[in-house]
Write a structure and sequence with these properties.
alpha/beta, Diaminopimelate Epimerase, Chain A, domain 1, 6-stranded parallel sheet, 6-stranded mixed sheet, 12 strands, globular, binds guanosine-5'-monophosphate, binds manganese (II) ion
């Protein structure tokens, strides 16, 4: 890490008082884990933080927020605005550009009067905070927080609550420690957290062993009835209409990771999921090897992300969106 960046981050951490911690829209395990870890770290440093998410995290992530103070912008915009006006410091975690919190919640960043710091691992960040710690080579924002805390010389503030958030973020952003982004440091950090008393198995259970029958049956239906393997092409995708989702009583998070199941099929190197919603179509892309999906998603679906994991959105109908995907997909495999 650049010594100057860490020095500047330490100044923000030491001088802050009333703090707003903001993560990205559709918060995933790294967003929630990082926000919770940073919340407890700042509390342990005698500060007064509140977490704000643009919208509600899935229910299996909510337990990680049990001992934190947090607000959901979608449900409580006025409270967030009032809080934001009183805060002297804004931390932006796990996103690289103000638009990632969504058009409405972006006012929090645009109108913030105090000091701000971003800590993130997504490539190509825009410049929107006073201090920016951007490390795309690190597997998760949660791991990056560990490095920051260590390099600021503040590991004594890393108690079990901080450790739980860090473990959650690393685990979920690495597919349980298996992606190429995992390195020896990742395992060293995990070992250290466990050595200091973290009960890692409880985190796996809280995330993976809480399936509803509806969720499992939706996934079974999607794989059995809706999987398309593009002929002569290492590409597979699943699309789900609103009425199919409703049939299985869809809850946020129910198709999380399903795109990786498509990617796991022998001979498939690029996978996509198209999910219809009332506002449009949410798209998830995953890839491996020489195939990259973030630029493709940015070009055609207003999205972005990492080389091997990206997302996007389409305001067209599900059919039109899939047609567009099929028209352009040769560009991914070229
Ligand atoms: P997911 O498919 O899990 O929703 O997202 C995969 C990755 O792509 C995540 O790292 C996320 O940050 C990124 N991502 C998802 N949706 C968007 C989007 O609309 N815009 C950008 N820039 N990145 C996205
Ligand atoms: Mn992340």
């Amino acid at each position: 890490m650049m010594v100057d960046d860490i020095k500047r981050l330490k100044e923000v951490v030491d001088t802050c008082n009333n703090v707003l911690i903001l993560a990205h829209k559709s918060p995933d395990g790294d967003a929630v884990g990082s926000a919770a870890a940073w919340f407890h770290f700042l509390k342990n440093h005698g500060k007064n933080p509140t977490i704000v998410f643009p919208d509600r995290p899935s229910s299996n992530l909510l337990s990680f927020l049990d001992n934190t103070d947090y607000l959901i912008f979608d449900l409580d915009a006025l409270k967030v605005a009032a809080l934001s006006a009183q805060c002297d410091t804004l931390f932006c975690l796990d996103f690289n550009s103000p638009s990632r919190v969504g058009a409405e919640a972006q006012v929090i960043i645009d109108e913030f009067k105090g000091q701000s710091a971003m800590i993130d691992h997504h490539p190509n960040p825009t410049n929107f905070c006073d201090v920016q710690i951007s490390r795309p080579e690190i597997c998760s924002t949660a791991q990056l927080l560990y490095h920051c805390i260590e390099e600021m010389g503040m590991l004594t503030l890393l108690n079990t609550k901080v450790a739980e958030g860090i473990y959650l973020g690393i685990m979920t952003d690495t597919g349980s420690f298996r992606y190429p982004s995992v390195d020896a440091n990742t395992h060293f950090i995990l070992g250290k957290l466990i050595q200091d008393g973290l009960e890692h198995f409880k985190i796996h259970e809280a995330i993976f062993d809480v399936n509803t029958i509806d969720k499992l049956q939706l996934r079974g239906f999607a794989i059995t009835e809706k999987l398309v393997l593009v002929s002569n092409c290492p590409i597979g995708y699943i699309s789900l209409t609103l009425s199919e989702l409703e049939r299985f009583n869809y809850q946020k998070g129910d198709i999380e990771g399903l795109v990786n199941v498509v990617l796991s099929i022998e001979g498939i190197s690029v996978a996509a999921i198209f999910m219809e919603s009332r506002d449009g179509v949410k798209i998830s892309f995953r890839s491996k090897g020489k195939y990259h999906v973030n630029e493709f998603s940015a070009k055609y679906f207003g999205g972005g992300g990492h080389k091997y994991a990206a997302g996007g959105f389409s305001n067209d109908s599900l059919d039109v969106t899939i047609d567009r995907f099929k028209t352009f997909l040769v560009e991914i495999i070229e």
